[in-house]
Amino acid sequence: MNAPLGYIGDKPSQRLIPVEPIVRLEKVSKTFPGRDGQPVTALREIDLAVPQGSILGVIGRSGAGKSTLIRLVNGLEKPSSGKVIVDGADIAALPEAALRHARRSIGMIFQHFNLLSSRTAAQNIALPLEVAGYDKAEIRARVEELLALVGLSDKRNRYPSELSGGQKQRVGIARALATKPKVLLSDEATSALDPETTRSILDLLARINDELGLTILLITHEMAVIRNIAREVAVIEGGRIVEQGDVFEVFTRPQHEVTRSFLADESGRALPPYVQSRLTPEATPGSQAVIRIGFRGPHATDPVLARLARDLAIEANILSGSVDEIAGRPFGTLVVGVPEASVSTTLDFLNKHGLDTEVLGYVA
Ligand SMILES: Nc1ncnc2c1ncn2[C@@H]1O[C@H](COP(=O)(O)OP(=O)(O)OP(=O)(O)O)[C@@H](O)[C@H]1O
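Above: inputs. Below: predicted complex with adenosine-5'-triphosphate.
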């Protein structure tokens, strides 16, 4: 078999030339007719490219336009203007029969799993294969393969009501993969699951991405989902993408207020209530400046406060802090108080050591 154009081998590292993104939105807007005659614009001029083999997360608050975006990608909605290209095809321009065919290369998983309660796990997974007209022997073999992939071979004859939430989502994932799609769309797929089960489902998705090279586009309102699995993130607010890029970059140096608000609850970034309630924007005589310090990559574990005390005799009070991992890279946050008179010396020192700083305010 010939290799696809642009490749000399199977691995991404062997690519000769950049490959077309598998999903591309070009200046996509979507307006719905509102109930009271006032049109509702759900998406405005969205440009988004999902590279083949990547995991791209779209995060946004309720009503930001996430579901509309995903419904445009699988052709359930048509854009009011702009283009949605999936695997080279302009989805909105496809006639019904061609759209049905194109949908086989798009798998989808849902928050509430959407399994048929009258069918067993195996029968749910078999459904898209039956619809696509596979013969019985092919279906049996493929279903077994998929059950093994998601770790549910021993649950093949169980009905959804006999499965846990995590197991139901595994069935949902197996069903979505049945017709060997090129893209998997995930619509809040872990929002109904507890943190531990969420983690195991995200691990499964990461493994599928790695082993099968499947591209994943996921929408979520949960930071934890993005930071655990995505490599690229787009932040959506009011139907616009307000920030977009590498997950580590966006989350360690957020530019937009919405991105900051998603990060505000993260451990180490939140101020203790007793500091928050006393924080003022202006310094007063004898007050302490509250500084947030961000440690990225190799600086994440630097003993910088010890050096501050040793080299400049400035003593900083630690107010909160953590060292965590974002997209597999260490990132530390420390909130400290330093005497107001030492602020500029402290900031110079910290910045010289490659650390990010932000003065949050002052406490008397
Ligand atoms: N079919 C529709 N008719 C009218 N308005 C709609 C329709 N679908 C979505 N909207 C509106 O478009 C905006 C974006 O909705 P959307 O469901 O895409 O947001 P979301 O980010 O997925 O929110 P949530 O997380 O709450 O599901 C909202 O103001 C919503 O009311």
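The radius of gyration is 24 Å.
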